[in-house]
Design a protein that fits this description.
- A seven-stranded mixed sheet has the order 1-2-3-4-5-7-6, with helices on both faces.
- Helices cover 28% and strands 29% of the residues.
- Strand 6 (172-181) and strand 7 form a beta hairpin.
- It is built from five helices and seven strands; from the N terminus they run E-H-H-H-E-E-E-H-E-H-E-E.
- The chain is α+β, with helices and mostly antiparallel strands.
- It is globular, with a radius of gyration of 16 Å.
- The protein has a domain at 24-151: Gcn5-related N-acetyltransferase (GNAT) (Aminopeptidase).
C-alpha cells in the first residue's frame, strides 16, 4: 500500500503539469469505470515496483507488469467479490493517477462491521499533490456508507512513509502482523496492521 502514489502506457510520461512542474490542481476522486482498468494497472505496477524496490530483486520487480494487474482489476470490476467492494480512482484532469480498493476485511478476527483498505496507490510522478488524502477520505466515506464502523489496512513493515501518512490520518498499529508470499520463489514480506474506528458522519 502506498499513500501518495490506467490509462494507456503513456500515462507516466504525460501527467499534466503546471508551469512549476507540479501536477495541476484539477483533481478528483470517483468510482472506477471499466475504461480505467489499463491506467489502474499502470499505476499499480509503478507503485509496487517502488514499494518493493528495497525488498525484491530487479528480476522480480520486472514481473510487476501493468497488463497483469489490469487483467485482475478488469475481472474484479466485471464480477466484484461482493456488493461491498469498490474501486476508486484519483484523477488529475481526465487522467487516472491513483487508486484505492476497499471491501470487507478478510482477517480471521474481523466481523461484518470491519472494512479494509485493500490497496492504495498514487503514481510516483503524481505524489505530493493531495491525491492520497483525497483517495483515503473517499474510501472512508464509502466504507461508512456501507455500514462499516472500523477500518483496517496492511502496510509493509519497512514502509515508514506510508505508515506515517496513515497514522497522521488517524490510523494506528494494533500489534498484528503477517508474513506474505510475494513471488513465485516464496519471498516473504512482513506487513503490519493499522486500524481506526469509523464513527458515523
Amino acid at each position: 500500500m502506498q499513500h501518495d502514489h490506467d490509462h494507456p502506457a503513456s500515462a507516466a510520461s504525460e501527467l499534466v503539469h503546471d508551469h512549476g512542474g507540479a501536477p495541476v490542481a484539477d483533481a478528483s476522486v470517483r468510482i472506477a469505470r471499466p475504461g480505467d482498468v489499463p491506467a489502474v494497472g499502470l499505476v499499480q505496477a509503478a507503485v509496487w515496483r517502488d514499494a518493493y524496490a528495497a525488498t525484491l530483486s530487479p528480476e522480480v520487480l520486472e514481473r510487476f507488469e501493468a497488463h497483469a494487474f489490469a487483467r485482475v482489476w478488469r475481472a474484479s470490476l466485471a464480477t466484484p467479490p461482493s456488493a461491498r467492494h469498490e474501486l476508486l480512482v484519483a484523477c488529475a484532469g481526465d487522467q487516472v493517477v491513483g487508486f484505492a480498493a476497499i471491501g470487507p476485511s478478510s482477517d480471521a478476527d474481523a466481523d461484518d462491521a470491519q472494512g479494509e483498505l485493500l490497496a492504495l496507490g498514487v503514481h510516483p510522478q503524481a505524489r505530493r499533490a493531495g491525491h492520497g488524502s483525497r483517495l483515503l477520505n473517499a474510501a472512508v466515506d464509502t466504507l461508512r456508507g456501507r455500514q462499516f464502523t472500523r477500518l483496517t489496512g496492511w502496510v509493509l513493515a519497512g514502509d515508514e512513509a506510508t505508515r506515517a501518512f496513515l497514522v497522521a490520518s488517524g490510523l494506528s498499529a494494533d500489534g498484528a502482523y503477517r508474513d506474505r508470499v510475494v513471488d513465485a520463489d516464496g519471498t516473504l514480506v512482513r506487513e503490519v496492521r493499522l486500524v481506526a474506528d469509523l464513527p458515523a458522519a
